[in-house]
User: Which sequence fits this backbone?
């Protein structure tokens, strides 16, 4: 099992190449931006039920967007499962994804249907999750550092070199953080904040779950992460807690899109319909990933952060998922923040 998971994580190109050779009927190439355990569980369950052979390539949301763009003239992937909603909206606007209206759409929460409407039915919400702080209470106690409670706390000198957030060029999670700060503070103050925060950041890993895994291993005290990811690490036996920022916070509508020009279009549509069912959506919790599922009939795992109890901002998905805006904000971050010593 572990061997298969590692294969999926480390050798996607090889897997996809062999799937490409056996193309035709009966296969599906899945690009997947949730954690690899869920990707593999979804692939296995769908394969068992449908007889369609599924190959998995797991990558961060920004990385899959870049790959789909690079492959636009010769698509190798059929369906993009999971990852934050903004890059899925960007793909829709750039005509990289295909319109599809599943019969299951009206079973979904409003926020998931809105994601479909905003994209003219080129993507759909499959889960939601709120952004917050992960921290290692044992490590912070040893260093005599009080945990963060507010976005503004992260600028405090007590967190010098103690915080990780992912790199927004590859990670959808990190882009949600930037868009959240811009929406809370206004753009110029937000970039002043991000520059000041840079002093306290020890690394910007590629993947959105990199920072919380560093917290779990005791390599950094604090991460900027989805709070459901802290639950995963805690259940894995690691000393990880989470907090929700006092100023309010942003959230993701994790999404799914069929890639335009998919060679296995009918199989992609079958997977899409299946992935919106309550049974398929329960696989997230079965692999210890605790987002809130988008099908109203899917069980919300008791471990999942209760979205209705969280002070969420009115995240403007249409604006921050727009191609020019997302590209501009990430480039500004790279120029003004990432380039700092
Ligand atoms: N893994 C989990 C558990 C998530 O909730 C998300 C967000 O959709 C991701 C991964 C996305 O990862 P990244 O920030 O690398 O795009």
Assistant:
């Amino acid at each position: 099992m572990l061997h298969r998971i590692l294969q999926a994580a480390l050798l996607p190109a090889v897997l996809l190449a062999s799937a490409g050779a056996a193309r035709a009927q009966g296969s599906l190439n899945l690009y997947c931006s949730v954690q690899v355990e869920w990707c593999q569980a979804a692939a296995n369950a769908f394969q068992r039920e449908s007889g369609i052979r599924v190959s998995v390539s797991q990558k961060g949301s920004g990385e899959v967007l870049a790959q789909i763009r690079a492959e636009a003239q010769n698509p190798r992937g059929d369906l993009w499962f999971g990852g934050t909603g903004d890059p899925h909206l960007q793909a829709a606007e750039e005509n990289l994804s295909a319109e599809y209206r599943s019969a299951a759409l009206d079973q979904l929460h409003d926020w998931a249907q809105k994601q479909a409407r905003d994209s003219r039915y080129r993507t759909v919400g499959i889960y939601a999750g709120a952004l917050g702080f992960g921290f290692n209470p044992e490590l912070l106690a040893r260093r005599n550092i009080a945990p963060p409670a507010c976005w503004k706390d992260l600028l405090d000198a007590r967190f010098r070199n103690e915080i990780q957030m992912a790199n927004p060029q590859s990670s959808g999670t990190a882009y949600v953080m930037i868009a959240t700060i811009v929406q809370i503070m206004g753009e110029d103050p937000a970039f002043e904040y991000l520059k000041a925060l840079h002093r306290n950041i020890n690394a910007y890993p590629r993947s959105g779950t990199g920072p919380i895994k560093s917290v779990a291993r005791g390599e950094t005290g604090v991460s900027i992460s989805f709070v459901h990811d802290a639950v995963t690490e805690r259940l894995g036996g690691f000393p990880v807690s989470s907090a929700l920022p006092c100023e309010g916070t942003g959230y993701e509508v994790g999404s799914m899109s069929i890639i335009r020009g998919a060679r296995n279009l009918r199989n992609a549509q079958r997977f899409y319909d299946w992935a919106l069912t309550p049974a398929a959506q329960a696989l997230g919790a079965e692999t210890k990933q605790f987002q809130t599922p988008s099908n109203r009939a899917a069980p919300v795992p008791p471990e999942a952060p209760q979205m209705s109890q969280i002070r969420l901002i009115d995240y403007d998905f249409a604006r921050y998922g727009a191609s020019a805006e997302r590209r501009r904000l990430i480039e500004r971050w790279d120029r003004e923040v990432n380039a700092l010593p």
